[in-house]
């Protein structure tokens, strides 16, 4: 019986060609499926990258704002006239600023640090930072002094009978009405920083110490001992000399020397108040450490 032969027979070269064509078709199909993924970024990667970029930008903005706040100097000001912008730079919230403005809109005035704290309800972290720079009109300060004098019915002690302010203990100070643990510790620490009080008026530098309370302290205590500082001549002192004064930092010392050179000397202490950033309200204490000689 004869075997049937197929109608067509491929040669070896033809078979190779078929295989080659099939391979090409497979490669083309794979290319169509796979190539787009090489040129398209994953959506999740784009979202994560954008989110990370936004977080970095946000941190940079916060850091920039904080840096400006740290570099910004605070000068004495009347808390009755804090604007929205001023309040923001001091670290107050809009609610705290609104409370102050509402209080002032009623025709009322802030006449003490305690009034400011009570009205605005600012946290201690902000209050402790800005309260030392409150500057009230002279008539307010004088009124506080008069009230303190009227409320004092005790017999006035003579200089000889008073205790040396440079030797009092924290417990001694707490015997004064209005002086608690915090204030007494603050006074002792400041006294140590100065190396001893030079004059009674340096109690003005104690943060949170009201005029009335300061008067009560000085009814029993006064500066008797301590090393009197050798006064620095403003017309010959270098920047480093002036930095030794507890009330001056490097920038202010340099500004004083620059002013002196431009004006060919300093004639009186009042000239210092013309220098930008000079703490004029502390001039009576600053004079304890300075002299003006030709």
TrEMBL record:
Keywords: DNA-binding. Transmembrane segments: none annotated. GO terms for biological process: protein secretion by the type II secretion system. One of its GO terms (molecular function) is DNA binding. It comes from the Bacteria. GO terms for cellular component: type II protein secretion system complex. The keyword DNA damage does not apply. InterPro entries: Endo/Exo/Phosphatase_dom_1, RuvA_2-like. This is DNA uptake protein ComE-like DNA-binding protein.
């Amino acid at each position: 019986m004869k075997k049937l032969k197929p109608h067509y027979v491929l040669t070896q070269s033809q078979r190779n060609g078929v295989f080659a064509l099939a391979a090409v078709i497979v490669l083309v199909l794979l290319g169509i499926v796979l190539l787009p993924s090489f040129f398209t970024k994953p959506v999740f990667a784009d979202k994560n990258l954008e989110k990370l970029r936004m977080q970095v930008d946000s941190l940079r903005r916060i850091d920039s704002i904080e840096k400006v706040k740290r570099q910004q100097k605070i000068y004495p000001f009347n808390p009755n006239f804090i604007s929205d912008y001023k309040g923001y730079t001091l670290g107050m919230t809009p609610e705290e600023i609104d409370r102050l403005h509402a209080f002032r809109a009623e025709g009322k005035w802030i006449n003490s640090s305690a009034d400011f704290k009570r009205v605005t309800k600012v946290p201690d972290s902000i209050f402790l930072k800005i309260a030392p720079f409150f500057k009230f009109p002279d008539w307010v300060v004088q009124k506080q002094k008069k009230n303190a004098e009227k409320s004092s019915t005790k017999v006035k002690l003579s200089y000889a009978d008073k205790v040396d302010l440079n030797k009092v203990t924290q417990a001694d100070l707490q015997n004064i009405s209005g002086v608690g643990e915090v204030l007494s510790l603050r006074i002792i620490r400041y006294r140590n920083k100065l190396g001893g009080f030079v004059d009674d008026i340096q109690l003005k530098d104690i943060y949170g110490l009201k005029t009335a309370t300061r008067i009560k302290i000085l009814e029993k205590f006064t500066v008797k001992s301590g090393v009197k500082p050798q006064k620095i001549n403003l017309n010959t002192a270098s920047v480093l000399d002036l930095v030794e004064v507890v009330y001056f930092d490097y920038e202010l010392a340099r500004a004083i020397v620059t002013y002196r050179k431009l004006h060919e000397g300093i004639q009186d202490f009042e000239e210092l108040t013309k220098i930008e950033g000079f703490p004029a309200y502390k001039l009576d204490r600053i004079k304890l450490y300075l002299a003006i000689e030709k």
